Each structure stands twice: as C-alpha cells, then as structure tokens.
Amino acid sequence: MKMAAPEIVLYHYGISPFARRTVWYLALRGIPYSQCLQPGMLPRPGVARLGISYRRIPILSIGRDIYLDTRLQLPKLEAMYPELPRLGSSTPEEKGIERLLSAFTIDSGLFQHAVKLLPTDLPFLKDPRYFKDRGDFMGAELSAEGMKRARPEALREIAAAFELMETTFLADGRDWILKTERPSLADIEAVWVFHWLSGIPGALPEEQVSADKFPRVYSWIKRFQEAVTSAKKRLDKPKTLDGEEAARVVEGSSWHEEEEEGIVDGNDPVVVAEGLEKGCLVAISPTDTGRAHKDVGRLVSLNGDEVVVEVETAKGMSVRVHAPRHGFKVRRFDGEKGGAKL
C-alpha cells in the first residue's frame, strides 16, 4: 500500500528572497504545505522550538526530517510526488545549466551585491537592531553608511548580471531558460535575485538598470511572476501554524527518510580527518553566512551530497537535520553544545 507523503511545513518570512525559491517551487509543482512564519531577525522561537540553532531562512520540514538550505530543499522536493510533473531537467547538459545558474546566483556574491542596493530609507533599515542582527549573520560590521559607500560597485556588478542574462540565455527571445513550455527549475535558480531587486522601488536606478535597457530580462521576470500567481490560485492557500503547532506537526509525523538507508562514507576526506563514524557527535554550520550558529547532533549519514544529524527538540523528541555538503562544515563535536572542534 502506498504511504501518504509526510506533511510539509515551511519556516520562512514573506520578504526573504531565498524563501521565495522554495515557495515558488511548491506552487509551480502544486505541492500542498503549511507554513510557520518567522521574524525577519533573531530570535526565531518557532525554529528554536525544533532544537535548531541554524539562523537562515527558509527551513523545510518533511515529516520529522528537516532540511536546511534551498540548495538541498529543491532536490528533495523534486524527488517527491512522482505523479506531479517535475520542474528539473532530465538531461546531463541541462542539469549542468541548473547547477551553474545556482552557483551564479548563490555562490558568486550576486546576492551580497544586491543587498547593498537596498534603499537605506526602507523602514527595517532604520532599525539599529537590523544591522546588529545582519552583522552577526554576515560576520562583519554593517551600517547604512557602509551600504551607501558600497553601492556604486554593487550596482556595476548587478548591471553586469542583467546584461549577462539579456545577451546570453534570453538573447533569442525564448520564454524560459531551457525553452520549456513553463518555468523550470533552471528559471527558479536564475530569476530570484533579479525578481527581488526589480520589485523594490529605488533599488535600481533607471539610467543603469531598467526595462528599456534589459527588456528580455524584465519580460522574463513578469512572465515568471504571472506563472507563479496562476499556480498559487490552483493550490490551496497554505495553513499558517504558530511555532508550537508546527512543532507538534513535526514531532507527530513519521520519518520522511529511513535511517537504515543512511551510511557514513568512510573514504570522505572530512570523515577521515575528523575520525567520524555513524552515531558520533558532530557540529554542522554554514561556511559563508550564519556560520557562528552550529547545530550539534548524532551523525546519521554523510555522503558527497548531504550530512544528516539527529537532534532533540525543546520537548526532547528526535528530529533529523539535513544539510548539503556544499557550503557547510562538518566537525567532530568536542566540548559543550555549540563548542565544536574547529
């Protein structure tokens, strides 16, 4: 008998550009989910209730398995609901394009440049707590004055990114990156920074970046938004849960992935260097932003794609936290919680 898919809960906040990636994917695939809305700044009691120190948004729970980072969340969702048309490519060449677009928008520093273009008169930028919070997030001191000084160089980088999309992937007038009939995973990987910035009044000066200068990019953004809006209308509006309600859903669910399937790759260089084995205590943390926030748990599995640790929620229940290997550090735990050996 086919088992029902575990309930999905997405922890996010509405203006998070990274969270939009997962929200868009769920809508375009037609996957139902609930949401637990979190504050834009720490503390985030709903996330803490799960026993998780990780400070980035979004966080995706599928049953009692919890997935960090959109770079892992989207492939996990892609593997679910085989009865629904998938968004990812089936050919090696096009999969390579998806991966390269992900690296371009996430790993190249494009988003960090985009943040520097935020108008400093936005309400949340007038709150001194914001710069303290994001300073902790970035691992560097931030200020409105610093953003203004960095703006010219950031604008040059963003304009170059618009030009790249205009004159390469979209140059022949195609609707979607891979010439598909509807938006694909490649479009989600590519569009999110451009979509986010173009929707913020005052972020992009028209003499540098506009629909007149980059008509194909702006038309692509508009088509994408229309497709997402249409998809959301076909899907039931997600139920909004508070932190305690969401935790009860997670804790009361079955595992999405069976532990028996997990192995620790004995040939992995980190496993060898750290002396890791299944069941040992490890700490995982991002290597770029939010790296001071480490999650400590028992090692369930580790391979070239992901690491899985089992942690306790605030109520003493077990959940499994999954993180991609790319962009995350894994170290044997040595000391009090939060004091991983580095």
From TrEMBL:
Gene3D superfamilies from the entry? Answer: 1.20.1050.10, 3.40.30.110
Query: What PROSITE patterns has UniProt attached to this entry?
Result: GST_CTER
The record ties this protein, via Pfam families, to: DUF7962, GST_N_3
Residues covered by the GST C-terminal domain: 91-249
Q: What is this protein called?
A: GST C-terminal domain-containing protein
Task: Tell me the SUPFAM superfamilies matching this sequence.
Answer: GST C-terminal domain-like, Thioredoxin-like
